[in-house]
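Q: Entry one of two.
A:
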Amino acid sequence: GNNAIGFAKKVIAAHAGTDKTPPSVFIPQRFPYNPGGKEFGPVYGYKEHTSNRDFTVWTFGYDVSGISRAVLKYRLDKDGVNPLTDNDNDTYAGGPGVGAWKTIAMTRKLMDSAYNAGNPDIDFFVLPKAIAALYYAKISGLSDTLADYYVEMTDTHGNTFKTPIQHVYVAGGSGGGGGEAGSGVSWKPDRPGQQDTVTILVSHDPVMDNQGGTLHWGVNKKNGKWTLPIVAYRPAGTVVFGDGQAVETPFTQVDSTTWKVALGPFDNARQPVRSVHFVLHYGNDTWNNNNGADWEIHISLDGTNNLSVAPPEINIYPNPVKGNAAITVQGRKNARLRLMIFNAEGKKIQTIKAVSPGRVVFYHHFPPGIYFVQVTDEVSGRVYTRKLVAQ
């Protein structure tokens, strides 16, 4: 590296005052890597850990003429999906599927060329003649959303470099059932399914202890707004709040320092619930909105806390077939299954939805050829494929 710098300096000296090269910028990294979601590894003692939703983007930047401006830019996707059908998330110009870029100034930290990370086994007997500076910035307040981001640096001559656009889905996690969110707010189970009753607890909250209060809540946040839960989900004493996006359910006092509200199960087909959002509305008409982030509980639509969903059983008989074949699909009892059949050229020749939850039965005549039976679990979004040979 030092030898390369020596040659570069000769070229720079031969073209004094001419600098058309933008800064060199390391591809952006982030910490935590999986904001709002589950992580493992040495940082967490190799134990499951729910990371904070706020995350820091960091990188290294260097320019021989000096860097005059370093910013982090990020934008939010409008539906939480980066589809293959457009490039809105993948270009700086964007499109209708994403919002406008927001800009955050990055903090610079100069690096010591002899820094050994406290490891005595590292001996820099040759020190670098040049070293990049560390740049970092934090993105805060996101939840249950897909974000695009990149770093832009400009040198003192106005040359600008943009890193490739990165993507991250910020989950609606709460730092372990809300335990890290403050105000003694928690819930159990911490990863509920739609069949579960969710108990929300507030402990050691002086305002709640003195004033009492209500749970101000809604479901299925979209485009920044909550959805009003249907009547079937509202416990006794629940009233609709004036904005029409939320309801309020009174807390019940468990003891001198603990209050609770029980919600669910959220298993009514009229309104599948993916998330519950809430804040605290105290009896003195003050609020606790978790420092502006609200609290959010994700509801597993497959009705289980197990993140690994068992695949459906797909039977094709006979296979290979001459003429008619019977296809049966047996999934979980609450699965919404869709079966599609494609020929070898990828043309869809049949679509069948489950008549009853979790089960599909289909008979069909297959002319000679190769076919693919594709089963989609519309709850989990997972797709399973089997090959069928007709002779």
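Q: Entry two of two.
A:
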Amino acid sequence: MEKYIGQLLKMILLTFTGVIGSIIVGLLVYGSAVFSPTSIGFSFVSYGLSGAFIFAFYHVRGLSETMIAAAVVSIIQFLVVSAWINALYACIWSFGVNFSLVLLAFVFERKLAQLKQLKFLVVAVLYGAVFVFLTLLVAIISGVELLPPTIFRENFVDGLLIGLGLGVGIEGGEAFIHSLEHHGTKFSGPVEKHA
């Protein structure tokens, strides 16, 4: 039971720090419009929250369970977002961003471990690239022949900034957890104290 409480606390902390990181960056770019569901700035809250939860879930539970969590989060996000945007777009963006996040979480945790404090930069760039790809996918599916480069640039920057806030927030949360574990706080069972 103690193990599950520790895992739950880790997930809550990492989700909180990740979404706070994303919201802070969103406030710097869009101001308080980040809290308006009809504003483009709301993506900092929406994708910040879903992204932070997916990263936290992966950190605590691993890849296979995170795929299920990403599907559930995507369905919830789709149902909420489709209330004010086209259902096809809501589907592409909800599932596209969240399942890309599973891949990013894998890269973040496993492949970027040696980069230490610079992982958030890679996450930011990859997140921006996902936004560009999804913009192109929506254009292809909806039959738009020409999109100006400004739309791609704006979406890249938004994705980059969401990923930056999210990555810094997750890094901060992980550093806090490691610090607590180093000092003997139990997050996932007995922790060995280091001298």
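A: Comment on entry two: The CA atoms of residues 4 and 130 lie 33 Å apart. Residues 189-195 have pLDDT under 50 and may be disordered.
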